[in-house]
Amino acid sequence: MQRRQFLQLSALASAQAPSRPPNFVILFADDMGYGDLACYGHPTLRTPNLDRLAAEGTRFTSFYAAAAVCTPSRVGLLTGRYPSRAGQPNNTGPETVGGLPLSEILLPQLLKPRGYKTMAIGKWHLGFQPAPYLPTSRGFDSWFGLPYSNDMIPPWVKTDRSLHLYRNADRVERVTDQSNLTPRYTDEAIKFIKASKANPFFLYLPFAMPHLPVSVPKDRQGRSRAGHYGDVIETLDWSVGEILRTLKEEGLDQSTMVVFASDNGPWHDLPPRMIAEGVEPWHTGSKGLLRGSKGTSYEGGPRVPGIIRWPGTVRPGQVSQDLASTLDLLPTILDAAHIPLPKDRVYDGQSLLPHLRDGQPSPRQEYFYHLGNVLEAVRQGPWKYRQGQQSAPELFHLDRDPAERYNVASQNADLVAKLAARLKEFAAEIHADLN
What we know:
Blueprint: H1 2-16, E1 23-29, H2 48-55, E2 58-64, H3 70-79, H4 83-86, H5 107-111, E3 117-121, E4 142-145, E5 164-167, E6 170-174, H6 181-196, E7 201-206, H7 227-249, E8 256-262, E9 306-309, E10 318-325, H8 329-336, H9 353-358, E11 366-371, E12 374-380, E13 383-386, E14 394-397, H10 413-430, E15 433-434
Parallel strand pairs: 1-7, 1-8, 2-10, 3-4, 3-7, 12-15
Antiparallel strand pairs: 2-9, 4-5, 5-6, 8-9, 11-12, 12-13, 13-14
Helix pairs in contact: 6-7
């Protein structure tokens, strides 16, 4: 009965809705682990706003970033294509000239002809020099944020460049204190929403946190039982709450899809260069019960929180065990805005809208795990085949063994051969390497 009533209300809302397309907000954490939210099982972190977002929408338990490190993960989200296919499988940095190839079409470039106002707030990390690689040259009307990760300064990285905030194409402020980045980004988001409400809008907010070195405003320190890292996560949750409150106050709740995810899992096994200036090994997040972490092709690397909410369209209170990825966000958003995918390139994402709205199975049946330009693993349904550089082939049944503790390759030779062949075939298709 509940499902029937929801479908009836959804159909009624669609029939009564104006022709104006919906708004889209993507909130993208940096290095937040699969287990870092209360609704994903953390025992002490308090994340009431994100928990409410999940309760009012769909929470995915097998949601994957496009890669397990920063730049290629963002490539996949904004292009709907695996980073090797898109030509940017590795991180950029302070000395990088160029970045994501200019031939790639980003999500905001596809939305703007439909009348969308677009803004990026936060970490870009897809290239910043020369100017054609900046967000404002790639579909965003405006940008306020950092050109790359917040640790790409001395003493953590050898560079002569200081870290600057940009306003559009201009460096406007040297960053010496990162503690107020989350509140400042939140203020910018609220201003953009209020200023853009007369038009459909797309807001992309890739937070700086909780990428190391983590920091938090003084007035929010010492609040979390999970310590310094907990303060950072709970500040992000506060930010999400402020954005949701603004959408409601401005009458935009029913017309806005909000997505929350992370670019990859927590940064464990820190390199020695990071243990400086107060950074401690325990300033990183939780992978939950998963194996591996950022920079690995085990589940703790690319498997992240994934929540999508759109009142009246996305079914509330759903927990989906189906496969989904940030690769699917571009096709999903274009589908919701009634914008066709360009026909001149191959997309690796598929629209999740029938799954989110109607309860149909997710269209994603497989996912490929990248590290740089190396293809290390493939998942089909519950089965994951992995061939690492220094290990024998591995096969895991992720539904019954999400922690990847039991390698059952020797008992399933035919399946191993099938998935190994698929990995080789796809690597050739996207010009990736194999171990």
